[in-house]
Structure formats: structure tokens, C-alpha cells
Design brief:
The complex is a heterotrimer of chains A (319), B (334) and C (298). Helices cover 32% and strands 24% of the residues of chain B. By secondary structure, chain B is an alpha/beta fold. In chain B, helix 4 packs parallel to helix 6 and helix 5 (127-140) packs across helix 6. By secondary structure, chain C is mainly α. Chain C has helices spanning 21-30, 33-50, 52-55, 58-63, 89-125, 127-142, 145-156, 160-187, 190-197, 202-213, 215-238, 250-257, 266-293. In chain C, helix 1 (21-30) crosses helix 13 (266-293). The chains are: A alpha/beta (319), B alpha/beta (334), C mainly alpha (298).
Chain lengths: 319, 334, 298
């Protein structure tokens, strides 16, 4: 049994808005083992990206605890947190805006090394940059090019190289392939997978694209309006989705085959994340909603083994 | 002879920029029957949007330049129309919806008025009548009529896209061109909007060109599919032709690089390399350096069109010598 | 096909030369005819300012009064004629260029560094700091620039230094605003977040990432402000609160020649034209820069 590298307990992140508190992340808990990938899926506004950033303390959580290798990182000073950043990194979604347009490839990749004073010798540092470029499949001759001269796939590789520049062990991948063309997506996903095996990395893979997450994760957590509505090992989630939202999500994905499958079309619109009522947040769109759903908030319950779901009626619907 | 709503013949469009000439479209042929839906599939830079814009003659000239070719829409030769005549065609005979619903609506004008504007441009109706018609169209796309008085920012992404569809359909066009209409939307909203588009297509007996990079979306909505690469259509056929009898290596590559939701063990096989430099297209087949089946002829000679049936053709050297050649496809067939 | 040599530390600069992004801008600027005209003009004035001592002698020509030679129309000895004191107008224009350009550039530098710093801090940190800084500057902004400059000069006395301070201070709020807006547009970009993620501290982020990327609007603004600073200098000198005669300055030359405008128009024509041309050329360059720096046109 691998060690747990990251554990999140009752994580909350609320933002202030003119109409009240916006519950971006509302009481989310999970744990990830070293070397594994947790996929976090959901549509826009579900809080997945915010969760990723809060874990790295790029945003400060409103409440809850985050344990990295057993240490409660919310209690760390700014200086200690900066040290920890050498191990915890992030890959951004948009390869166009996540790289400083005024820096060359080598400057972008070596910046973390310089800032953290990891390698002082210029030549050695340069060698390290070349090493990283080789690792992510970037041609060495691109060393002095600017991001805008390169395509999305290459830019994303730069972002990955930069994230690996320090002694990274844990990476939050925030929609790393959503902005890329289909054939390039596959290249980058394969790269990420290879790097994980080679370097023993642990990932949180945030995405709205369920087909990608199936391919890429060990466990999957489904989020809706800030809440985690279902969590299970990937294979289990895809073959046996329990939560009505997960079911709708899975059925909504357009499949590139001619087989017709039943589509669950959700009615209505997503409710507001501002001061939500303490009821099931999916109730207004759920085809199985009953009275209790509109009165009480469902808690996470175990379906079987590692499979959890937050739904009042799951037993009935399964039975 | 079938009555085609759209006939594009040998269209060549290039862009003259400071950095060189971009060969955007290199001989596009498209015929679309009335009431049918054609999926135009390809990645960034393939030329899909340029093709769409050329039908509405919205390709900016300069830097764009129509080098040769013709477009006949509903019997009208588009290239020969004056700008004034084109304005009468746009929105009425052919309508277009764009990818990003967030910026396609004017934020300071009420939604109802924006729809009414589209109506009053083409139909000489009084203000009240236009607004009344606008309300009808809005309800047609599933939005309660009283939301006409609201501003775009009060609508969610999916609803904004519906409004845009309403505007596009307000004058009952014969052809609707949808450029990646659901790419920017959440998956469950995408399902809603696609469902809506299918209904409306039936109701209006409207022809549609659906531009998408997503083969799943195409499978849902389209009758025929054209795969574009570097400004050419490399394979075209009915939905079955493309999905079950894939012929072009690029098409096969596209299928192989999509994660299959129903088969998580399947390995992702990306297409290696990148799309060719549009400033400098190679003399032979543009897919040459990324193709697993490449032969010597592919490097130097442009592939010729090879038909497999009345509907299905491809441009690939593999079939000139061996018409019966079969790709070693790894996707599961029906 | 030969394999290219592997990149190493020693030979890496041989690879794709690090193209300066400013070179790109320069190339685009050259395309605008009006900008090029502006550049030529301002270059001409710069030359006049730099090589003034080689063109005319300060004591003899610019200051030297010679009643016998007074009020001469432009001729071969005195290209722009002479003024009411017999001084060579051309020489005075040339030395006036020095003052105008000097005050213009220095005052804008003062405004840029002080106003820019305030604006960057306000923009980056936001919230109460932003509020505090901007509201104070708003008060300053509410006072008409010229009036403010007049007040400062009146309080401190009319000298070239005080002129620079006055014009500089009155431009601080404007620069603060432009820099703040620029910083705001950049600070939410993901590469800023990326810098934070690798452990960069705030000051590093501002200096290394935020400011370099927000330069474009600031450069355009600064160029246009030099033009207005020159105008302000001349205006203040015209009303007697700037450079005092006999030191040649275009503004005070206009003031001095006012009485003779009917019969000896050339006395005011040259300084007037000088002001117009410098201001015009800077505006043309500023406009050209704005287009050249526009990322949408890339």
C-alpha cells in the first residue's frame, strides 16, 4: 500500500460577491497515494480549478486542512511554503497565456531553478534546461525561441518542463490538454503518463473531458457546484456510475461511433453558487428528485469499497 | 440531377501577409443536398472556417484572395454578387453561427431587440411585428418569451448560444453554417444544444454545415462528413463510409487519437508531428511527414482523387495502385 | 541529410538568434509614413540640440545684442532674421531646442518614475492600497495641469529646475493611471500565476513579468506626454513663469516678438513653427508606436 502523499479534509473556499458568499469549493475531502492520478471532473463552475489552486495555496482556503506528506501546509509560513513549492507544481490549461511572452524557452524553464537557487553555475543550469527539454520532447534547437513562435503542443511541453524543473513530486494538471488539437492532446497525454512512470509523479488531473479522465486516472472525483458528488476508482465509475449527475455526464459525451446510446438530457439550468440552500444542489435538474432532495443536503456514503456517492436515493435507484 | 443547396467547385483561397502567402484553401469541392447535414472535420489551420466564411463572402479581401473557383448557393453564383446583394443573402438564404457565444451578442442591447434586428433587416415588418416574431423564435429554441427583455449577461453560455441560434434561424435560412457551435459549452449543455439543433433541422428542413473537430458531435448530427487537411478535403463520404470504411490515414489517425470512453485500456495513438506550414506547403501530399503509410510517391506527387462509391472518395496514393487496400485500423467497428 | 550539431552551452547562441522584440516593433513602425516623418523631424531637432555649439555660438549669436542689426528679415547672414535686440533668431531657436527637449524628457522621466511606481503598486495590490493612492492622485488630477504648474513655479520661483519639477509633478497622476491600467490588464494573466507557483516574490513578479509586459501603452503615453510637456514649457515661458529672457526659449521668444507681429512676423514665425513641428513629430511617432505595438495587428 503506497503512502498517501496528499490528503484534503473538508476543504472550503468561499469568495465574496455583492450578493453574498460564493461557495466555490464546499467541503471537499479526498486522499491521493504516491504515484497515482486523481481525476477531478465537472463542468464550468463546479469548483475543480479552484480546488487545484487552493491545494497549492495559490488561493488561500477559507476552511479545511491540506496535508502534504503528513504536514498541514495551511499552517506553514510563506517562506516554508516557498520551499515546499519545489515539490508541488502546476501545469496550466492555456499554453498561450501561461508563458511570459517576453521570455525565451530557456528563460522560462530555468526561471524556477534560478529563483530557488537550485543550480548556481550557469553552464550546469543550461545543461539541466537541455535535459528537461529532452525529457518533454522539445527539440533542443528551440532553446532561444519565443512562445508565440511555437504551436500549442510545444508551448504546453514548455509548461511541463518548467513544472518539472525543481524536484517536483506532485503536479496539479489544470485542464492541460483542453486547449490543444485532438492529435496533439494525445501526444501530451502520453507524455504525462510516461513522465509519471519515469519519475514517480503524483497527479491531480482536472478536466471537464470525461473521456480523457477515463484514460488517464486511477481514481475519479466528480464535482458539481462546489460539492463532490461521487468518487470511485476510474474503472468502477465508468462502468457503474451511481450519481444521477455522473450518469447524465457520461451519457452526454458525444461518442465517435455510430452506435446509438440513450442520452440523458438534463433539463433546467445550474443553480447559483451564491449562498446555496442546504439541500441537494442537483435536485432541480435531477430526474429522480424527490421531497427529501429538496429539503436536506446529501452526505457522502460508501457504495462499495472505495466507491462513494452523495445522493439521498442511491440505494433505491440501485436496488 | 439532384437539387443542391450548395455547390463549391475547386475553391482556392490564399492570404497575402507580410510573412508570406498562406495557402488556406487548395481546391475545395463540396456539394450539399437540401435538408442534409455535412460535417466539416479538421484541426486548427485545416481551412474549415475559411470555407464557411467564403460561402457568406466574409473572407476579408485583403489579405484574403479568392484565386479561383466558384460557389453556388441556392442557384446563386456568390462570387458574382455585389456587396448589396450579399447583404440580402446573409441571414436570409444562409446563416452562420460562430464558436464563441460569449462575444457574439451585443452586451448593451436587449436580447429580444437583437433577434428583431435580424428579422427587420430582411423582412419589411413594423417594430411590433418584428418583436412578436422574435418572441416566437425565442420560444422555438426553448427560452421563455418573457426573457426577451433581458440582456445577454443575464443568460448562461448555453442559453446565449440558443439565442444566437434563434437569430440565425429567424429568417428561415435554407442553409445554416455552424462553426464549432458547442465547443465552448459544457458537455451537458452541449447535449442540450445538439438535441435542439437536430429538432430544428427536422422542423425547418434546413441544410446544415457543421464544422467541428469532434468526431463524436459529427456522429450525432451529420449525414455526410468531409475531412479537411491543409486546405483540401482528404476524405469525404456518408457517416457510415467515414466511420466504418475509413480510407484516409489522417482520418484513421483522428479516430485513434481520441480517447474512447467505452474502452479505457485502449492506447492513445497520437498522430506524430505537426500540420504542415501553410506558408510553405510541400509539393507532394501535405500529410506525408505524419503518415504511417507514406511511400516515395507521396513525397513528390500530389495524391489523386479515388472514388469508392457515389458518395465516398479519398485523396491518397495508397489506392491508386491498390484500390482494395485496407488500413490497419485499431478502432472497434460496429 | 547531415545532422545539425547538438546544442550545447558553448554553441547555443548560434541557434535561432534571440530576436529582440523591439526590433519587430521597429520594423512595423517603419511602415507608417507619418511615423517616419515624425522620426526624421525629431531626429533633426535632436541633432540641433546636440550639436548646438557647432552650429552657432551661444554668447555671440544667441545672446549677443546688436542694435544695428535689429529687426532684419531672413537673409543670408541671419537665416531666420534678427529679433528686436539684433540677436540671431536661428541661433536662438537652436539653443531653445535644447531647453525644450531637455525639460520635456526630464519632466516626463520624473512623472514616469514617480507616477509609474505609484500606479504599479496600486494596480498590483489593489484593494485599500489602490484606493488610497488613486484618490490622492485624483485630487491632483482635478487641478488643471497648467494651473498646477503655474502654482508650483510661482511658489518655487522660475528656473529651469523648477520648471521640470512643476511639469513633472503635474503629470504624475496621468502616468499613475496609465501604468495602473496596464498592470491591471497583465496581472491576472496565467503566467503571473505561474511565476507565483514557482515561488517568485511580489517584487520579482512586478519587475520581471508585469512591467515588461505592460510597457506598450506606457511608451505611447510617454511619447505623447513629452510633446505636451514641451507645450507646457513654452506656455509657461510665454506668460513669464518659465525660462526667463534673455535665455532663449521658444515660448519667451514668442512673448517677446508679440509686439512686432504686424511688421516683423518672422520673429514669431520661427519659434511658433518650432513648437508646432516638435509637438507634431512626437504625436506622429506616438500614434505610429500605438499601432506598431498593437498586439492584435501582429
Amino acid at each position: 500500500m503506497s503512502e498517501i502523499i496528499l490528503e484534503v479534509k473538508n476543504l472550503k473556499k468561499y469568495f465574496d460577491s455583492p450578493k453574498g458568499k460564493l461557495h466555490a469549493v464546499d467541503d471537499v475531502s479526498f486522499a491521493i497515494e504516491k504515484g497515482k492520478t486523481l481525476g477531478v471532473v465537472g463542468e464550468s463552475g463546479c469548483g475543480k480549478s479552484t480546488t487545484g489552486r487552493v491545494i497549492l495555496r495559490l488561493l488561500e482556503a477559507t476552511d479545511g486542512e491540506i496535508f502534504y506528506k503528513g504536514v498541514n501546509i495551511r499552517k506553514l509560513s510563506a517562506a516554508k511554503m516557498r520551499e515546499l513549492r519545489r515539490e508541488m507544481q502546476i501545469i496550466f490549461q492555456d499554453p498561450f497565456s501561461s508563458l511570459d511572452p517576453r521570455n525565451t524557452v530557456s528563460e522560462i524553464i530555468e526561471e524556477p531553478i534560478i529563483l530557488n537557487k537550485l543550480i548556481k553555475n550557469k553552464k550546469q543550469r543550461f545543461e539541466r534546461v537541455l535535459e528537461l527539454m529532452d525529457l518533454v520532447g522539445l527539440s533542443r534547437r528551440l532553446i532561444n525561441t519565443y512562445p508565440h513562435e511555437l504551436d500549442g503542443g510545444r508551448r504546453q511541453r514548455i509548461g511541463i518542463a518548467r513544472a518539472l524543473a525543481l524536484n517536483t513530486e506532485f503536479i496539479v494538471c489544470d485542464e492541460p490538454v483542453s486547449a490543444l488539437d485532438v492529435s496533439i492532446q494525445a501526444q501530451i497525454l502520453n507524455l504525462l503518463k510516461n513522465l509519471q512512470h519515469k519519475l514517480g509523479l503524483t497527479y491531480i488531473f482536472i478536466t471537464h473531458d470525461l473521456s480523457v479522465v477515463n484514460h488517464f486516472s486511477d481514481d475519479v472525483a466528480v464535482m458539481y457546484l462546489g460539492k463532490m458528488v461521487e468518487k470511485a476508482p476510474a474503472e468502477e465509475l465508468f462502468s457503474h456510475p451511481v450519481h444521477p449527475y455522473t450518469q447524465a455526464l457520461l451519457s452526454a459525451i458525444p461518442r465517435p461511433t455510430l452506435d446509438k446510446h440513450e442520452k440523458i438530457i438534463l433539463k433546467g439550468e445550474i443553480t447559483s453558487p451564491i449562498e446555496p440552500e442546504p439541500i441537494c444542489r442537483f435536485a432541480n435538474r435531477c430526474r429522480y428528485a424527490e421531497d427529501i432532495c429538496r429539503r436536506e443536503e446529501p452526505q457522502l456514503e460508501t457504495v462499495e469499497g472505495e466507491h462513494e456517492v452523495a445522493c439521498h436515493r442511491w440505494r433505491e435507484l440501485e436496488g | 440531377m439532384k437539387d443542391h443547396i450548395l455547390e463549391i467547385k475547386d475553391l482556392h483561397i490564399q492570404f497575402n501577409t507580410d510573412e508570406g502567402v498562406v495557402q488556406a484553401l487548395n481546391g475545395i469541392d463540396i456539394t450539399l443536398e437540401r435538408g442534409k447535414t455535412l460535417g466539416l472535420v479538421g484541426e486548427t489551420g485545416a481551412g474549415k472556417t475559411t470555407t464557411a466564411l467564403s460561402v457568406l463572402r466574409l473572407v476579408p479581401q485583403p489579405p484574403g484572395e479568392v484565386v479561383s473557383g466558384s460557389i453556388i448557393l441556392d442557384g446563386i453564383p456568390i462570387m458574382e454578387q455585389s456587396e448589396y446583394e450579399m447583404e440580402k443573402i446573409r441571414g436570409k438564404t444562409v446563416s452562420m453561427i460562430f464558436q464563441d457565444p460569449m462575444t457574439a451578442l451585443n452586451p448593451v442591447i436587449k436580447v429580444g431587440e437583437q433577434i428583431a434586428e435580424a428579422i427587420s433587416i430582411h423582412q419589411k415588418l413594423s417594430k411590433e411585428k418584428s418583436l412578436a416574431k422574435a418572441r416566437e423564435v425565442l420560444e422555438l429554441v426553448g427560452i421563455p418569451g418573457n426573457r426577451m427583455q433581458e440582456y445577454p449577461h443575464q443568460f448562461s453560455g448555453g442559453m446565449k448560444q440558443r439565442v444566437i441560434i434563434a437569430i440565425a434561424l429567424s429568417c428561415s435560412p435554407k442553409l445554416l453554417i455552424a462553426d464549432e457551435p458547442t465547443t465552448a459549452l459544457d458537455v451537458t449543455i452541449q447535449a442540450q444544444v445538439l438535441e435542439l439543433m437536430k429538432e430544428l433541422k427536422q422542423k425547418f428542413h434546413m441544410a446544415m454545415v457543421m464544422i467541428s473537430h469532434d468526431l463524436g458531435v459529427v456522429a450525432e448530427v451529420c449525414d455526410d462528413v468531409a475531412i479537411m487537411y491543409a486546405g483540401r478535403i482528404v476524405e469525404q463520404g456518408s457517416l457510415e463510409d467515414i466511420f466504418l470504411r475509413t480510407k484516409h490515414p489522417y482520418t484513421e489517425g483522428l479516430f485513434n487519437s481520441i480517447p474512447n470512453i467505452d474502452d479505457r485500456k485502449a492506447e492513445l495513438i497520437p498522430i506524430r508531428g505537426l500540420m504542415s506550414d501553410p506558408y510553405n506547403l510541400p509539393s507532394g501530399c501535405p500529410f506525408f511527414d505524419r503518415c504511417d503509410y507514406a511511400m516515395d510517391t507521396c513525397r513528390t506527387e500530389k495524391p489523386v482523387k479515388h472514388s469508392f462509391s457515389e458518395t465516398h472518395f479519398t485523396e491518397c496514393h495508397l489506392y491508386t495502385a491498390q484500390p482494395e487496400f485496407s488500413l490497419k485500423s485499431k478502432k472497434t467497428k460496429e | 541529410m547531415s545532422t545539425p550539431p547538438t546544442t550545447t552551452y558553448e554553441n547555443h547562441s548560434l541557434n535561432t538568434k534571440k530576436k529582440s522584440q523591439w526590433l519587430e516593433v521597429w520594423k512595423r513602425l517603419k511602415k507608417s509614413r507619418t511615423a517616419v516623418i515624425g522620426l526624421i523631424l525629431i531626429l533633426m531637432f535632436l541633432m540641433l540640440a546636440l550639436f548646438a555649439p557647432f552650429i552657432a555660438d551661444y554668447e555671440k549669436d544667441a545672446l549677443g545684442m546688436n542694435v544695428k542689426e535689429r529687426l532684419q528679415s531672413p537673409n543670408l547672414t541671419h537665416w531666420f532674421g534678427t529679433d528686436e535686440f539684433g540677436r540671431d533668431i536661428f541661433a536662438r531657436i537652436v539653443y531653445g531646442t535644447r531647453i525644450s527637449l531637455f525639460v520635456g524628457i526630464i519632466s516626463v522621466s520624473i512623472a514616469l518614475s514617480l507616477g509609474g511606481t505609484l500606479g504599479a503598486i496600486a494596480g498590483y495590490y489593489g484593494g485599500r492600497i489602490d484606493n488610497a493612492i488613486m484618490r490622492v492622485l485624483d485630487v491632483l488630477l482635478a487641478i488643471p495641469t497648467i494651473l498646477l504648474a503655474i502654482t508650483i513655479v510661482a511658489a518655487l520661483g522660475a528656473s529651469i529646475l523648477n520648471l521640470m519639477i512643476a511639469v513633472g509633478i503635474s503629470n504624475i497622476p496621468g502616468f499613475a493611471r496609465v501604468v495602473r491600467a496596464s498592470v491591471l490588464s497583465v496581472k491576472d494573466q496565467e503566467y503571473i500565476e505561474s511565476a507565483r507557483a514557482i515561488g517568485a516574490r511580489d517584487h520579482t513578479i512586478i519587475l520581471k513579468h508585469v512591467l515588461p509586459n505592460s510597457m506598450a501603452p506606457i511608451v505611447v503615453f510617454a511619447t505623447l506626454k513629452v510633446a505636451s510637456a514641451i507645450m507646457a514649457t513654452s506656455s509657461l515661458s510665454f506668460i513669464g513663469l518659465g525660462i526667463q529672457p534673455p535665455t532663449p526659449e521658444w515660448g519667451n521668444m514668442l512673448a517677446g516678438g508679440r509686439a512686432y507681429i504686424r511688421d516683423h512676423m518672422y520673429i514669431v514665425l520661427s519659434p511658433g513653427l518650432a513648437i508646432v513641428l516638435t509637438v507634431l513629430s512626437l504625436n506622429l511617432i506616438g500614434d505610429g508606436l500605438r499601432d506598431a505595438l498593437d498586439p492584435k495587428l501582429k
